[in-house]
Specification:
The complex is a heterohexamer, with 2 copies of chain A, 1 copy of chain B, 2 copies of chain C and 1 copy of chain D. By secondary structure, chain A is an alpha/beta fold. Chain A has helices at 59-65, 96-102, 117-127, 134-147, 151-154, 167-179, 197-210, 223-229, 247-252, 257-263; strands at 11-12, 19-30, 33-44, 48-52, 76-84, 87-88, 103-106, 185-189, 215-219, 232-237, 240-246. In chain A, the strands form 2 sheets. In chain A, strands 1-11-10-4-9-8-7 form a 7-stranded mixed sheet, sandwiched between helices. Chain A has a 4-stranded antiparallel sheet with strand order 3-2-5-6, with helices on one face. Chain B folds into 3 domains: 3-48; 51-183, no CATH class; 201-418, MetI-like (MetI-like fold). Chain B has 19 helices and 3 strands. The relative contact order of chain B is 0.11. The chains are: A alpha/beta, B mainly alpha, C mainly alpha, D mainly alpha. Bound molecules: adenosine-5'-triphosphate (2 copies), magnesium ion (MG) (2 copies) and phosphate ion (PO4).
């Protein structure tokens, strides 16, 4: 069934009017191997978009090209136009450091620095020189932790090590750390796959709240999670973006047979 | 037959094999530990006596006339005075010697250094001039050997003592004029052909300077190289070569580095032989791969997630390295460095080839003074025929091992202290 | 165990979703209840305008049904509810359909009211209409209330009430027959009253259904096609 | 000014440049009105960049100066020698120069030397003083100019961080080059001398000859009398001793590692493992001493007679055994690493099927670890072959071609040491043969290491 | 894209579950269809035994409804179906209720048949009964068939057919009125025919509902409360 | 809400008539810390029982005590009666080797031995001496791979390394390896948590098939998985067995409020 189907055009509604990030004709290669094939996609401002698809379909690769984390992989090459509010992020003249401050990232495994909770959150503001006085820094730390819904749990032990928190708390700490530099976009690569269901629920909750003024792109292996947290869902298949639609649509009545097959567990 | 019955059938045989295998393992460990104990007890058994020395008590008349000294503060007079003759005279008087042949035997009971000892005593006690004092003088190494073994051997062992000397010694023993005292010379002096005057100070200082050079050069360079290779270098043919290279260098026999030192530093650059500087350079080249490898391992042990985390909030490469990677890797790097240096400290072969195998009496005072190193000293002494030198060698080994143990303990402590497992 | 904690999920979004679902349903219930009241009143008072209003509301109810159904589907697709959450969604989905049917029947009653208005009233049956109408309306109200409070006791009462309504319907029906036989010219008009009564009876049935859904929701027991006494036994047993 | 003083001043200048740069960037940024956010980089980087501008040229200059300083001075001095002396052969001039040096440093009493030498010595002193002063001046100018350039470059848009990072990267890269240089150095030094050697002695004779006696040379200028350079006895001796060592080290090391990692309780492990590792930390010269004074006599006096054999006092057995003991921890800790790298999940898998511990070890853990263990063993072999001090002290010098462990054999490393210790002429075949031996040793150990590391690396990738 | 691949899950268990669900539903459909046929036949031929048979089957249908509903709930709880699977389960759950209602109406028809049998037949209306009966029966059959084949075309036909049935019902109803007015003594018996007709009409409605569920299942479109022409437009549009 | 609730007795139906394994009053301690508190539970013959519960509630601990894999942890101590067909498995006279052959285990991370596929499966039969001739062994290997649904995928490369398979295939290989010694019970500790959805579905499929003649106890973090694969579900909470019931019941109408709260995601 899968074989006869063409997927070189994306069905659904990949393009938007109020896009925060716009990708056009994105190809990503690992050495000679093409991992992403001409993807066109807009990410709406202050929306949550979920990227789903079978293992190895290129979700992470695509996500990581959005803040040039792919730069760290020597053999990785990105083609096409990737724009953040109209600015090409692969412009050779562009400095990745401020880009990454604007487009933050949260990873699969919680990765707090082996420092105190305070220093974890304060790190970003420090390196970017966002707070000149200690009191400003304190404020940034507090508000970031507040936004990450962690303040009440940690306010009495800001100087305890961040690695001493539970997995779910660590992940929220990582989110707080990312928020601290006031990013406009946050990329999340399977942020809950190392967490138990309860911690997962809390992080999902957080995502919903953050999306009020941050654009979020989340890669997830759990279709249910995509269904729960996102407003739009993009389905990738072997490096192709097969379908993008409102999440409701994708989970009740997807347009593309491949999406349907994936959503309903019909691959083999 | 049911599966479980088959399983039960073979069970006894399987358990016998299990026991046997375990016994092999335990025996191996036993063997290893036995060797360790043997080695240590052997060295300590041989060497502990070197820390004391036999002294002889002699009655000396500091006759101002004989010595020609009027003022003990006058260095020229003191220098010119015949203290050696005084020692001999005192010996003759003490043993009431007439025969010429006996004189030589008597003289050889005390160290050749005795004249200087008297000189120093007089400098320290000017009031002694003109009086007769009983003073302790260093015994000769043959007497030393004999005296140290006299209890164990019940007189059967004579060493290199002559009949006549044995009589005198008996006499001395009866008068309590033979005594073991702490061997200061061992720690204060440089090498000497006379065992009782040989010390490890020069070698120790030589080792210290060599090690300093090694440390100052190898640690920063090694860490920098490790950072470059782990964090910056692109993965390509060239860095692969560097990597393979370093791993190979770490396993290249140390003597090859000696050859390198001999050919390049001595032959090509024309540096002087026997310098701690050259030794340090050679040992640097030798330890560098080790330090690079342990540093790289320490850097590798820093989870990549930390780097990604820092990078994803906009830290630059250098910030990632300096703020995160380096602090986290530092305990590992330091431990690696100390262990590398400990290795360098015990290294002998390359130093032989660059001439740090000289007979050094003077204590070196800098990296450009000719010097030898402690292990080399051990090697040199182990070749000397005198029995006392075997003792000294063992003692030097004990010192060397002591230093090494301290260094390794330091490494362990450091790791424990710095390694904050958050 | 009797309490449902539908507002205690870790996911506040889910809480909100479920809350919203219930509110939507109760709102729709309110609209339908009003429809029923209006329709009964219209037929009693021969109020054509009121009947017209009932007809007009019909569309709104249909839309609400479709929206609520979509909402249920979405929650099923997005949240994969289990246990009480699942029962909640299913109960709402089923109640939804019952409410819509009630609306339909109210619509029919209103139509009959208009017909009666035009034809000039039936010889009788208004008392029965009023009586059964108020009974049914009470049932509907009670059922919705029970849903709002997850009140199994109240739901059981609704179930019992339905039996009374059925009895009264039977006797009203016999009465109507008599009217028709007595005065064949009134057949057409009496038929309208009959249809209205019939609709009221159906509304009562649907209210009973809603009550059954509540019991399912709260207790996890399927009490359809089960006699009232049997239901009570099951409930006490659990 | 002395070099240390200069260095101290330089450091101070760099520090000042840093502060100046940082302050200026802050001033510039507050002028933009956007505070620190108006700057491209943090002030720290502007400071660093200014410091780099200040320090780098100065340091390079200092280094160059120190390297060429002596050469230049020397040329000037020699230029001042009378014509006759200037024509003398190179060596003589060198001798003269050292005399001048000595006079200058006051080692000779005044007036005892020829006038031109006296003069030269004075000139030397003067030149050196001038050189130092000039250096101080030039350094001062360089730092000032550098600092100014750096300072001028500071503007809010200036991408200081990027520049600093590039500089940082270059420094790191330079450091990593040293490893390559070392290898190149080794290869060059060994190969050059070896080529000289093979010009005198045919390579075939060296590789296949069975007689080794480099000491026969009586007079260096005597043609064809530079002894016999057939290295086969050396190779055989090396292999014999290594073989003895490995037959002790492999079984003992491996079984210890297995016992420690698979059977031992945590307490046993914490005490015994470091104890065994002490063996690895003992310098080889100590083992050598132990071999000579304890093991060799024991073998000669007790062990061999017990077997009815006759042992040399410098038997291969003594050296081999002691070397084996030395290598035990090497084998055991490498194997231990490798065995520990075998994931616990494999053991669980095997135990979960009902295997006993030893079955699990023999059938799952050991095969899984085998490539790594082989790699480790090869590294140990390479180490045995290259081991020097034990054999220098405990093995003999006589190049017997034998595989009898009771006899005395010599090894490649022993010969290298004996040939090179003491003053040597770099062009005699005797000395050069040491380099040829070194070349052999290097090639063999390199090949072993190369292969072993390859195996180990492939193995470790397996569980990543 | 038009095909549903409900048998292509990786999980064979899931395939089997869905298959079982469908089979259960179709079986129940078959039972209900037979009920309808029998009931209509019973009323036509005044066959009391046949009517009795229909009454007896009622219990079976109720049980089937409850079991199918439980099965749907279980699939929702155990499998968290999405997309077409979810639509399938929901469509089955809804169809289930429609089928049960059809069974109820057949039950009612059978009761009327018994009553008519006892009372001695109505003056007329049998032609209409037969006619509408066969039409409705055809609709039900078609709807079930369409479900079995996920055939949207056929479902659309069912929807259209319902309009015809409604028209015929209206005219039959008028005819019945005439009968009653003509012969008031026959009122009771004609009323039985009327109730039977009315039930048939409801069965037709439920068949239409089933058809709508099929369209929802296959196309993901909710076409309830939407006129036929509108439905066709939507289908062609999608 | 959670606090007021007692959970020292198990609600539901912990005991069965046709139990394969019966546990009575099981306590497990790690040194002084009690990880399992007096659990009574029967595992029905040829049934799949799922153990669910929040992280750290003791699921794995309980599972591993069922074939004495806990013996490998020094500080772990098990109390109570654990019976396999009426035989106490903690009887000091009992030998763990045959016990583990009867009660096999599959782990979270696929752990094929670094040997060929064939040798992996043949390992158990070999150590236990189950096949005297090569041909018997071949047969065991083939039938085990068949049962694990892997035969068709690997029959052409039986001598390729097992580690070269994909994650899902590796896990099925591990299951085949376990089946090869004809265990009566298989314990699975989160067997799918390292697999992607498709591989997970295949393993679940396999579990369903195996349960026809093997008793299976599976620990899972995914409630959905428990719902899909098991016939009975046991819910653990802080070391207590809170509820055991038919899976249908647990997922549509659990008896204990804690179970309900966990199933519906209401912890916090
Ligand atoms: N560093 C890399 N080098 C080479 N190929 C890579 C690299 N990273 C990913 N790939 C390849 O690119 C493709 C896409 O990988 P990617 O990690 O983006 O997939 P994914 O959808 O995120 O999968 P998963 O769900 O397993 O995380 C895969 O075929 C993978 O093998
Ligand atoms: N080896 C151990 N030593 C000490 N305590 C342990 C050990 N293993 C588990 N525990 C403790 O026992 C309790 C139960 O752990 P267990 O691993 O059984 O939980 P679990 O339910 O399997 O959790 P998860 O879902 O995270 O796997 C936990 O509190 C844990 O901290
Ligand atoms: Mg990924
Ligand atoms: Mg667990
Ligand atoms: O929809 P009903 O036919 O049950 O009223």
């Amino acid at each position: 069934m899968t074989n006869e189907i063409v997927y070189d055009a994306t069905v659904g509604r990949p393009l938007l009017d109020d896009a925060k990030m716009s990708m056009r004709g994105v190809n990503v290669f690992y050495a000679d191997k093409q991992a992403i094939h001409s993807v066109d996609l807009d990410i709406g401002k202050n929306q949550v978009i979920a990227l789903i698809g079978p293992s190895g379909c290129g979700k992470s690769t695509f996500l990581r090209s959005l803040n040039r984390m792919n730069d760290t992989i020597d053999i990785c090459r990105v083609e096409g136009h990737l724009m953040l509010e109209g600015q090409d992020i692969y412009d050779p003249k562009l400095d990745v450091v401020p880009l990454r401050a604007r487009v933050g990232m949260v990873f699969q495994k919680p990765n707090p620095f082996p420092k105190s909770i305070y220093d974890n959150v304060a790190y970003g503001p420090r390196i970017h020189g966002l707070a000149s006085r200690r009191i400003d820094l304190d404020e940034i730390v507090e508000s970031s932790l507040q936004k990450a819904g962690l303040w009440n749990e940690v306010k009495d032990r800001l100087h305890a090590p961040g690695t001493g928190l539970s997995g779910g708390q660590q992940q929220r700490l990582c989110i707080a750390r990312t928020i601290a530099v006031s990013p406009e976009v946050i990329l999340m690569d399977e942020p809950c796959s190392a967490l138990d269901p309860i911690a997962t629920a809390k992080v999902e909750e957080l995502i919903a709240e953050l999306s009020q003024n941050i654009t979020i792109a989340i890669v997830t292996h759990s279709m249910q999670q995509a269904a729960r947290v996102s407003e739009r869902t993009a389905y990738f298949h072997m490096g192709h973006l097969v379908e993008v639609n409102d999440t409701e649509k994708v989970f009740t009545n997807p347009e593309h047979p491949l999406t349907e097959a994936y959503i309903t567990g019909r691959f083999g | 037959m049911k599966t479980i019955d088959l399983v039960n059938k073979n069970l006894a045989k399987r358990y016998r094999k299990e026991k046997l295998f375990r016994a092999y393992g335990l025996a191996s460990i036993g063997f290893g530990l036995l060797c360790l104990v043997l080695l240590f007890s052997d060295i300590i058994g041989k060497g502990y006596k070197a820390f004391v020395q036999t002294n002889i008590q002699i009655e000396v008349n500091f006759d101002a006339g004989y010595l020609g000294i009027t003022d003990t503060t006058n260095t020229e007079q003191m220098f010119a005075a015949n203290f050696e003759g005084l020692v001999k005279k005192s010996l003759r008087e003490m043993f009431l010697i007439k025969k010429r042949s006996d004189k030589r035997l008597a003289y050889s009971l005390v160290s050749t250094d005795s004249g200087y000892q008297l000189h120093d005593l007089l400098v320290a006690n000017p009031a002694w001039l003109g009086t007769t004092k009983k003073v302790w003088l260093l015994a000769d190494d043959d007497l030393d050997t004999y005296y140290k073994s006299v209890d164990n051997l019940n007189g059967a062992f004579t060493g290199r003592m002559q009949e006549q000397q044995l009589v005198w010694i008996k006499n001395l023993l009866d008068n309590d004029a033979l005594q073991l005292q702490f061997n200061m010379n061992f720690f204060n002096l440089g090498d000497s052909t006379e065992p009782e005057l040989a010390g490890i100070r020069a070698a120790l200082m030589g080792s210290l300077f060599t090690l300093m050079v090694t440390m100052v050069l190898s640690f920063p360079v090694g860490v920098a190289a490790a950072i470059y290779l782990e964090e910056y270098a692109p993965r390509n043919r060239f860095t692969d070569i560097i990597e393979v290279n370093i791993n190979n260098l770490a396993a290249v026999p140390s003597i090859i580095f000696g050859l390198l030192g001999a050919a390049i530093f001595l032959g090509f650059f024309g540096m002087h032989r026997s310098l701690p500087l050259v030794g340090g350079l050679v040992l640097t080249l030798m330890t560098l791969p080790t330090i690079i490898i342990t540093s790289r391992a320490a850097i590798k042990a820093v989870p990549p997630s930390i780097r990604e985390a820092a990078m994803s909030i906009g830290a630059s490469k250098m910030q990632v390295v300096l703020h995160h990677v380096l602090p986290l890797a530092m305990p590992g790097m330091l431990t690696g460095a100390i262990i590398g240096l400990a290795q360098a400290l015990g290294e002998t072969a390359p130093l032989l080839l660059i001439g740090m195998v000289a007979f050094i009496v003077d204590i070196p005072s800098g990296v450009t003074d000719p010097a030898t190193a402690l292990p080399v000293q051990i090697y040199l002494w182990s070749d000397r025929p005198e029995r006392s030198f075997a003792e000294l060698t063992s003692a030097a080994i004990m010192v060397l091992l002591g230093v090494l143990i301290v260094m390794n303990a330091l490494a362990v402590l450091l790791r424990k202290k710095l390694e904050r497992r958050w | 165990m009797d309490k449902l904690h539908l507002d205690q999920h870790i996911s506040k979004q889910f809480n909100a979703d479920l809350e919203e679902l219930k509110t939507q349903m109760l709102e729709m219930g309110g609209v339908v209840e009003q429809q029923i009241i209006d329709a009964v009143k219209a037929i009693e008072t021969a109020d054509g305008a009121l009947a017209d209003k009932v007809l007009r509301v019909e569309n709104d109810v249909d839309n609400r049904e479709m929206k609520l159904d979509e909402h249920c589907t979405l929650i099923l697709a997005r949240r994969q509810p289990a246990a009480s959450d699942l029962r909640m969604v299913l109960a709402v989905a089923k109640t939804n359909r019952d409410l819509e049917r009630m609306g339909d029947e109210a619509h029919k009653i209103a139509k009959m009211a208009i017909a009666l208005n035009e034809q000039g009233g039936a010889p009788g049956g208004y008392t029965e209409l009023r009586h059964i109408g108020s009974g049914v309306q009470k049932m509907v109200n009670m059922a919705l209330d029970a849903f709002a409070r997850y009140d199994v006791e109240a739901a059981l009462q609704v179930v019992q009430e339905d039996k009374n309504i059925d009895r009264e319907y039977e006797s009203a029906m016999r009465e109507m027959m008599t009217y028709m036989m007595e005065d064949p010219r009134s057949i057409k008009r009496v038929m309208n009253v009959i249809w209205a009564l019939r609709s009221l009876e159906r509304i009562g049935d649907h209210a009973r259904n809603v009550a059954e859904h509540i019991i399912y929701l709260v207790k996890g027991l399927d009490v359809r096609h089960v006699s009232v006494s049997e239901v009570e036994k099951q409930l006490n047993g659990s | 000014m002395s070099i240390p003083t200069l260095l101290a001043l330089l450091v101070a200048a760099i520090a000042m440049a840093f502060v100046a740069g940082r302050n200026r960037s802050q001033a510039v940024s507050s002028a933009t009105g956007r505070g620190q956010r108006g700057l491209n980089s943090l002030p720290f980087y502007y400071g660093m960049l200014t410091a780099l501008w200040c320090g780098t040229p100065a340091l390079l200059l200092l280094l160059g100066w120190l390297v060429f300083d002596d050469t230049v001075v020397r040329l000037i001095i020699i230029d001042g020698f009378p014509e006759a002396q200037r024509q003398l052969p190179e060596e003589t001039i060198n001798l003269l120069m050292s005399t001048v040096e000595n006079i200058a440093s006051g080692s000779y009493p005044d007036g005892q030397q020829e006038a031109y030498l006296q003069h030269a010595a004075e000139q030397l002193q003067a030149l050196r003083n001038i050189s130092r002063q000039l250096l101080a001046l030039v350094l001062f100018c360089t730092t000032m100019i550098g600092t100014t350039i750096g300072w001028m470059k500071i503007s809010p848009q200036y991408r200081a961080r990027v520049k600093v990072e590039t500089a940082f990267k270059w420094v790191l890269m330079a450091c990593s080059m040293i490893a390559i240089l070392t290898t190149v150095g080794i290869i060059l030094s060994v190969i050059f001398e070896s080529i000289h050697f093979f010009k005198q002695i045919p390579i075939t004779e060296f590789l296949f000859g069975t007689h080794w006696s480099p000491q026969v040379a009586i007079r260096e200028d005597q043609v064809g009398s530079s002894g016999a350079f057939g290295a086969v006895p050396l190779f055989v001796g090396t292999l014999l001793i290594s073989f003895i060592a490995m037959s002790v080290a492999i079984p003992v090391g491996l079984m210890s590692a297995i016992y420690l990692s698979e059977y031992a309780g945590p307490t046993f492990r914490t005490w015994v493992k470091p104890a065994l590792e002490i063996l690895a930390g003992i310098p080889t010269v100590v083992y050598g001493f132990f071999a000579v004074v304890t093991v060799a006599p024991f073998i000669k006096d007790s062990f061999a007679p017990m077997l009815g054999l006759d042992a040399s006092s410098e038997s291969a057995l003594a050296a081999g055994l002691v070397m084996g003991v030395m290598i035990i921890p090497f084998v055991s800790s490498l194997s231990d690493d490798v065995i520990n790298a075998v994931p616990q999940s494999l053991r669980d898998g095997s135990l979960g099927l009902g295997a006993t511990r030893s079955e699990t070890i023999k059938l799952v853990v050991f095969p899984a670890a085998l490539p790594g263990i082989v790699g480790g063993v090869l590294l140990a072999v390479s180490r045995a072959i290259g081991e020097t001090m034990i054999v220098v002290m405990a093995a003999g010098l006589s190049a017997n071609l034998t595989i009898n462990p009771m006899e005395s054999v010599t090894t490649v490393t022993v010969q290298i040491v004996t040939l090179l210790v003491g003053d040597q002429e770099f062009d005699s075949a005797k000395t050069l043969s040491a380099f040829a031996l070194g070349l052999m040793l290097f090639i063999v150990t390199l090949a072993l290491n190369f292969y072993a590391l390859y195996v180990v690396r492939k193995y470790s990738e397996q569980y990543e």
